[in-house]
UniProtKB/TrEMBL annotation:
One GO MF term: tRNA dimethylallyltransferase activity
Protein name, UniProt field: tRNA delta(2)-isopentenylpyrophosphate transferase
GO biological process: one example: tRNA modification
Matches recorded under InterPro entries: Dimethylallyltransferase (IPR039657), IPT (IPR018022), P-loop_NTPase (IPR027417)
Species name: Thecamonas trahens ATCC 50062
Transmembrane regions: none
Length: 370
């Protein structure tokens, strides 16, 4: 467990899809001699460059990126893997005298990395030592097999070893189910007991992040999302999804809740077209894909407000509604760069943090997702 005084400052760009996170991350990396650590649960997969909006060849040549396209498309990936790999990447970036810039919209990954760390094995051991009833024998559970099982099977397995967590977790919340199972199997302690201890005495994160949040008015954001979907289709999204669908149909990919193919927005929405190949189906699927992406963007906003802001984590919004060259430079790039330089120097960032709602603060340790 890292001591508080050992925490190092990093810069993180958060926000919704299509708002300009990657654009801002690139600008900051070029200005600060930084490297980008992707914080995106789909960008880790190879074979989905359009569906996951991976950096282009030009962007990869200009700025070194980490945790992009390194997992097989038919594989699985978890928040535990992300945290371990992000730690290694960030520490390596620091060791080479550069600035780590975490960029992405998978906010629960960032939460585990730099806000509310996942419960450690040491904490689980301490919980078991203090309360032997928290220990449970889960040696009969096969995590690899459960990762590919259907939601009902995985949830039933969790209920057999941790009924408290299972009772508060819907079977379709697959990442939460898988994380709880992983905790129990790997530590021999119920996830619910470990989370309770984490909530009572939070372990400090290894890094201290500056959270920059470019955001746009929803009507503007929706229009950008629609335009991005149309552009992705023009660039070959359907062929990419077709190949992914064939891999699933052949039985060559996991269909469990953690599988990259299952998570990616697009495959499910375009399934009717991939089956019928009719223009009517394509139009209907385009509508569904745009709707799903809009809904995802709203869930990203809710996470920022309900987990980061309500917990008291300072998040600095930047108005990205005007994406003209001059508007973006004045409202997003220039203030973000100035804030990042000040942050890394240990000074005040000069920005106003998002204000927390008056409601009771959300507990980021209540349910972990993977």
């Amino acid at each position: 467990m890292a001591a508080v005084e050992e925490r190092r400052r990093i810069v993180a760009v958060i926000g919704t899809t299509a708002v300009g996170k990657s654009k801002l991350g690139m600008a900051l990396a070029l200005a600060l001699d930084g490297e980008i650590v992707s914080c995106d649960s789909i960008q880790v997969y190879a074979g989905l460059p359009l569906a996951s909006n991976q950096p282009t060849a030009a962007e990869l040549a200009a700025v070194r990126h980490h945790l992009v396209g390194h997992v097989a498309m038919d594989g699985t990936y978890s928040v535990h893997q992300f945290v371990a790999e992000a730690h290694a990447a960030i520490d390596d970036i620091f060791a080479r005298g550069k600035v780590p810039i975490v960029v992405g919209g998978t906010h629960y990954y960032l939460n585990a990395l730099a806000v509310a760390p996942l419960p450690s094995a040491q904490l689980a051991a301490a919980v078991a030592a203090a309360d032997p009833s928290a220990a449970v024998d889960a040696s009969h559970l096969d995590l690899a097999a459960l990762a590919q099982a259907d939601d009902a099977t995985a949830h039933a397995a969790l209920a057999s070893v941790d009924p408290v967590t299972a009772a508060r977790t819907h079977p379709s919340a697959r990442r939460s189910v898988n994380t709880a199972l992983r905790t129990v199997v790997q530590t021999g302690v119920r996830h619910s007991n470990v989370v309770k201890a984490q909530r009572a005495a939070p372990e400090p994160a290894r890094y201290e992040p500056l959270l920059l949040w470019p955001r746009a008015e929803l009507d503007v954001l929706d229009a950008r999302i629609d335009a991005r979907v149309d552009a992705m289709v023009d660039r070959g999204l359907l062929a990419e999804l077709d190949a992914a669908a064939e891999l699933l149909a052949s039985g060559g990919a996991s269909q469990g809740g953690d599988a990259g193919l299952v998570q990616a927005i697009g495959l499910k929405e375009f399934a009717p077209y991939l089956e019928s190949r009719t223009s009517a189906a394509l139009e209907a699927c385009l509508v569904q894909h745009k709707l799903a992406t809009r809904q995802y963007a709203r869930s990203q906003i809710k996470y920022i407000r309900n987990v980061f802001v309500r917990r008291g984590v300072k998040v600095y919004p930047l108005d990205a509604t005007d994406d003209s060259a001059s508007g973006w430079e004045a409202a997003v790039k220039a203030p973000a760069e100035a804030a990042a330089r000040a942050w890394l120097a240990g000074s005040e960032v000069g920005l106003s943090a998002e204000k927390a709602p008056a409601e009771e603060a959300h507990d980021p340790w209540a349910v972990f997702t993977s």
